[in-house]
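WARN retry 2 of 3 for item q-0093 after timeout on previous attempt; input resubmitted unchanged.
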Amino acid sequence: MQSKHIHLIGICGTAMASLAGMLQAQGHRVTGSDAAAYPPMSDQLAAMKIPVHEPYAEANLAQRPDLVVVGNAISRGNVELEYVLDTRIPFCSMAAILHDEFLVGRESLVVAGTHGKTTTTSMLAWIYEVASRTDAALAPSFLIGGVAENFGTSFHVRPTRPFLLEGDEYDTAFFDKGPKFLHYFPDAAILTHVEFDHADIYEDLKAVKTAFKRFVNLIPRRGRIVAFDGAENVTECVAKAFCAVERYGFAPSSHWRVTGMTHDAHGTRWTVLRAGEHFADLTLPMAGEHNALNATAAAALAAGQGVPVAAIVEALASFRSVKRRLEVRAEVGGVTVIDDFAHHPTAIRETLRALRNAYPGRRLWAVLEPRSNTLRRNVFEEALVESLSLADHVVLAGVFKSENIPVHERLAPENVVARLNEGGTPAELCADADAIVASIAPRLAAGDVVAILSNGGFGDIYHKLPAALEQVTA
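OK item q-0093 returned
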């Protein structure tokens, strides 16, 4: 593509911010706009010196761009989108330009699934990066929906063939309501989990499974799918694949079988058997059974693509996680503040289980902002209560932008709090981040672990709570 001025509407989304950097690396002049910028993507954009305009306004397009990329969070009525349509500035979706500009002629390796795809893609990218130290052809290009700590970025663009992608099942754009991952045409793929999610665009679990079945149907006969072996939904979605399917999990029949898992303060250790034969003893400096499974999937896909076992073992042992995935944000007065992106009851459950393993015997607080389009709805109320009950104390914020959710569909946090208290888990409801900080900071004690769960900025609680703890312990 000839060098152009490309403007991204909704640039601070994880995928959009990454695309901005990729386009800049290709020599394009990149600008963008968003309603609100927050870390880690705002930091990444600032480091790349990509201008970000706030808020949305026609004036942001005064220097008419050659092309506008419309983020999937942007809908009709957005002032910039309306200006683009009125003035006929050429526009496209993130997924479409990603395919046309970066994926043609490469080996596309896609990680898909309701949970774990950001971490798994980051693991896969780091495996390839370590392997490239002895084989330069394996140096990966990648796009991840988060900042991979080993790289300090969410993307890389290189001239080599492997291109590793997080495959998002969310819709593509206001004019393309199909999943983004249908644009990526994988040569091989990982499928982690398939559950009902994104209740704003999928009517039910059947619709979600249909999307993943279409994804599987894109993989050529010469390709391969590494699929989780512990869920009926995954089994159904890969049942009609035309390519080889290799299952991973704990079952004796799993092609990639996880055995002998142990946890301690330093992380997780386990052995992987490949078709019943010893493959590798793996170590991961992260807590959580789910993270070990993610690592096994990444190892399996990489090994099948020719990556040496030694590189896989070395990479996982030195893996540094992803921003906002069990990320320790502060240690103040013996209180550990954890930031995690969990925004689905299953992810919340696995996050709290992982923290139990990482911090045994310590009091665990779960502080949740119902912010995602799914979690703001009442469809998961029962599952949410079950997941949060793994904590010793739960604090819920009010539903983010509750007015955007129909009353009959809206989550009632007060119901969740009441049911938790009835079940013996102390819980309370606070209006916002400031109210939460004021309520819990004086009550936190040395040894407590606070898991802050949100897929957004959460009123800057990640800074406000440690600051309040500093005052309390001063």
